[in-house]
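Anyone able to model this chain together with flavin-adenine dinucleotide?
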Amino acid sequence: MAYPLACARSVPHHVAYCLWKYGSREQKEKLLPSIFKAEVIVSECISEPEVGSDADRISTRTVRDGDSYIMSGEKRFTASVGVADVFLVFAITSPDVHPTRRIGVFIVEKDRGNIHPAEEFSALGWKGLRIVSELVFNGVRVPRENLVGQEDQGFDILMDMLDQERVVVAGGVIGPARICLEIARRYSEERMAFHRQIRAFEGVSFKIGDLALMIEAASLLRIKAARMIDRDLPAVKETAFKVTTEAMQILGGIGYTDKYLVERHSRDACGFTIGVGISEIMRLVIQREVYKEAGLSGQ
Ligand SMILES: Cc1cc2nc3c(=O)[nH]c(=O)nc-3n(C[C@H](O)[C@H](O)[C@H](O)COP(=O)(O)OP(=O)(O)OC[C@H]3O[C@@H](n4cnc5c(N)ncnc54)[C@H](O)[C@@H]3O)c2cc1C
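re: yes, here you go
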């Protein structure tokens, strides 16, 4: 249950950060205490059936109607949405302007009506997370006071939230990587093959050394990223995935079974290479920062 639990703890943090930084006084007073007391469960609705990494292409939209917005569209893969009371929804407010300037962020309470959850996916890992495949907003009336920040600020808010999110999530994946390394190290001392401990083979012991190095590097990178939160893009998600799969390899056949935790961590770590920004997109963003730091234009 560790990953769903970590997610159930971290998503409220991300939503609360958004409200704390961009929300109105009324929004903060109404929601922050109950989010922190876990009286209200929140979810972030960004991804859609046709849109993932390129979030500025979302098609969920709102139309102004007096003091309200009428929201229609479909969201997908929203963590915890199966149990959420409140959704933080990213939706188009002004269809005719530049994609990064046409998105707003809305607080949408589940009991507003006209919100229909579709089937739930059964995912490879993160069991218990209640990732619903689609959430359909079918003409949901959202009052103007539920807009967070300005009508055109949604994309900037999302980028800011993702920076925070990646540092928080990085902390969550280094722990399981350490656990898997420890299991693999112990196993390499206990298991015998060809009349010796398997750690006597460099193919095994060098892996243990390399993985320990990767974890330490990822850990330091995360600390650095947390300190320069506005510019960070750490690559620790790949580290966790690499460590868990290599640990499974060291355990051999038994690693492929559920006797050791390595199998479960391996499935769960896989989700981190997608969930908070797919690995390829992380590389895209990192290389852009490298060029920018050298005074060149990013692509
Ligand atoms: C466990 C989990 C939890 C999640 N939680 C949430 C949540 O709470 N809220 C939410 O809104 N969403 C959530 N998501 C969705 C997640 O954010 C998306 O899956 C992710 O952003 C990738 O989008 P996509 O799946 O549509 O893939 P796509 O963006 O369609 O990518 C498909 C493939 O194309 C590649 N690709 C795309 N663009 C580029 C590029 N420019 N360069 C190189 N390769 C590229 C990708 O690397 C990938 O291999 C979650 C997903 C998972 C797995």
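The mean pLDDT is 87.
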